[in-house]
Amino acid sequence: MIIQSLLDTDLYKFTMMQAVLHQYPGAIVQYRFKCRTQGIDLARYLDEINAEIDHLCSLRFSREELEYMRRLRFVKPDFVDFLGLFHLDRKYIELRASQAVPGEIELDITGPWLHTIMFEVPLLAIINEVWFRNTASTDFSEGERRLQAKTALLRDTPGFEECRIADYGTRRRYSRQWHGTMLPMLRDALGPQFVGTSNVYFARMYGMTPHGTMAHEYLQAFQALGPRLLDSQVAALESWAREYRGDLGIALADVVGLDAFLRDFDAYFCKLFDGVRHDSGDPFSWGDRMLAHFKANRTDPTSKILVFSDGLNIEKVMQLFDYFRGRCQVAFGVGTHLTNDLGPTPLNIVIKMVRCNGQPVAKLSDSPGKSMCDDPGYLAYLRQVFQVPVPEGE
């Protein structure tokens, strides 16, 4: 079966889950799946996907896995105790073939946030792997050749010795086997240039550093949980600070667009958080604006980290590193370009939170086509509240 451990997910699922346990254990949410790649017939593999989900919901954390989690400095003992009782419950998933679009599948996850937050990453990994094992070869030789070329470029180009990358590609991976194969290859080829992985299972297996803080869903949920919509980002960031007290200090900047984020990310947050993560829009102009914002708020940009994670390849990593070198600290999370570059075209699939406590929530991306909401009226209202214009292409 594809998922062999509940640790086989991104670290930020655990960090968000801990905050949910302590602050919003009664929140009810809904997630929805979307395949943005046209002409993909996933419905024919519905039985196979269902079997994988059944297996996923049978898994429990082992004693050794719980002890590993307990050793992470930011994980609290009561959260590990909760994980010892936790399992994913199939009753929260609705999966069916679409009646409207032949070949498409409809996947909804609805239930307590605390008990559904862990579904997203393994479900995407399952759907990806089911698709590729039925439509492509399992020969990894082309992937290994491409990976060697990438690591040689980063390792052997003068001036890039301090460039650091991490693997962020669990949900986008070609297969679990390839993921487990390429990580030690990256480590051995890049040495200190490779700083770890977002995948907790492989971090434990290979003695790597797990990476991750918060995802879009955390800030989206506060559109329903916060005191008022306009203050939702501030409420989310303050909630995070209460939970981690200065640890895990990378904020996510693109949930309602950069302009609105900068209005909320005042001098207090500039000094409190270690840095900011980019995940949509032009990364160069985004970084320029973030550094100018730090300066305007009497914060030394060289003390802050800009984390780039939006559709990166090694060439873009090197361009960004060269552009921001010396002006701040930079870090890179590379996903599909590492875990699903073996020849076949990767799928563009996502699972996004669309409701919290019965209210619609949404992300207003800085990139056209990345916004996702099931309520056009709410989306228009969200744009109005945060003064976000409709981008070209939507």
Largest sheet: 6 strands, parallel
Rg from alpha-carbon coordinates = 20 Å
Mean pLDDT, to the nearest integer, reads 96
If classified by CATH, what would the architecture of the largest domain be?
Alpha-Beta Barrel
CATH topology of the largest domain: nicotinate phosphoribosyltransferase
SS strand fraction: 5-15%
Pfam families: NAPRTase (PF04095), NAPRTase_N (PF17767)
Domain Nicotinate phosphoribosyltransferase N-terminal: 7-128
Enzyme class: ligase
Keywords: Glycosyltransferase, Ligase, Phosphoprotein, Pyridine nucleotide biosynthesis, Transferase
List keywords for this structure.
single chain; 394 residues; alpha/beta; nicotinate phosphoribosyltransferase; 2 domains; 6-stranded parallel sheet; 5-stranded antiparallel sheet; globular
Characterize the structure shown.
Belongs to the NAPRTase family. It holds the Pfam family NAPRTase. GO terms for molecular function: glycosyltransferase activity; nicotinate phosphoribosyltransferase activity. Pathway: Cofactor biosynthesis; NAD(+) biosynthesis; nicotinate D-ribonucleotide from nicotinate: step 1/1. The protein has two domains: 167 residues, Alpha-Beta Barrel (nicotinate phosphoribosyltransferase), CATH 3.20.140; 164 residues, nicotinate phosphoribosyltransferase, CATH 3.20.140. A six-stranded parallel β-sheet has the order 5-4-9-8-7-6. The chain is an alpha/beta fold. The two termini are 39 Å apart. It contains 17 helices and eleven strands.
